[in-house]
Amino acid sequence: MMTINKAQFYQRVASIKKIAAIKEPKYLEKALEAELSAVVLSIGNIAVIKRYVDLFKRPNFPVFLHIERIGLNSNNKDGVDFIAHYIKPVGIVSTSNNLIIQAKKQGLLTIQRLFLVDSDAVKSGLQSIQETQPDAVELMPALVTDYIAEFRKENDLPNYRRRVDKDKRSDDRSYKTWGCCCLNGKLPIIGRKI
């Protein structure tokens, strides 16, 4: 297993600033040729996942497994033990508090994925990271604003963007850029009729 501690991982991310999320086998080779701080594998099954992880160990890439996306029954303590002791990635990515805690007990680095879709999700996300103490946090949806216009082109239904941030100017950006109104959990629907 490639050994890398939290400080080394942070230093690597700070210097390279790119983590590849690999969702299809055809991107394995491209990732091997890229300058990356780490790789997150969101593909694989019990027959190939160890081979994929080992492939990235040779050029010394820290490899994380997106534990809910790989084809293993890894959503329990035994699955995390198997990953830690047989597959041997540097760490895991997960939305599950229990899996993050189990992985940390096994000495794996952890990235907790949070979906910040509204103010309640922000609160529960902050509670989760206090409880689990992950090594890093992935905030989603990172690209929602990039996809709103594309989504609107494909259907004629009213589209709303839920505002998570406190900056009301983002509402104006939504009107102007995507033609959608915003929802805020503490206010009634705000915005213009679309």
Q: What shape does the CA trace take?
A: globular
Order of helices and strands: HEHEHEHEHEHEHEHE
Main pleated-sheet profile? 6 strands, parallel
List low-confidence stretches.
Answer: 178-194
What is the residue-averaged pLDDT? 77
Total beta-strand segments: 8
* Strand order in space, largest sheet: 1-2-3-4-5-6
Helical content stands at: 40-55%
Our estimate of the beta-strand percent is 15-25%
Classify the secondary structure makeup into a structural class. Answer: alpha/beta
What is the gyration radius calculated from CA atoms? 19 Å
Quote the distance from N terminus to C terminus.
54 Å
> Helical stretch count?
8
Overview of the molecule:
- By secondary structure, the chain is α/β, with parallel strands linked by helices.
- The protein contains eight helices and eight strands.
- It has helices spanning 6-16, 28-33, 49-57, 77-87, 97-105, 119-132, 144-154, 169-178; strands at 19-22, 38-41, 63-66, 91-94, 109-115, 136-140, 160-162, 181-183.
- The strands form two sheets. Strands 1-2-3-4-5-6 form a six-stranded parallel β-sheet. It has a two-stranded parallel ribbon with strand order 7-8.
- Strand 1 (19-22), helix 2 and strand 2 (38-41) form a beta-alpha-beta unit.
- Helix 5 (97-105) runs parallel beside helix 6 (119-132).
- The longest helix is centred in the middle third of the chain and has 14 residues, at 119-132.
- The protein is globular, with a radius of gyration of 19 Å.
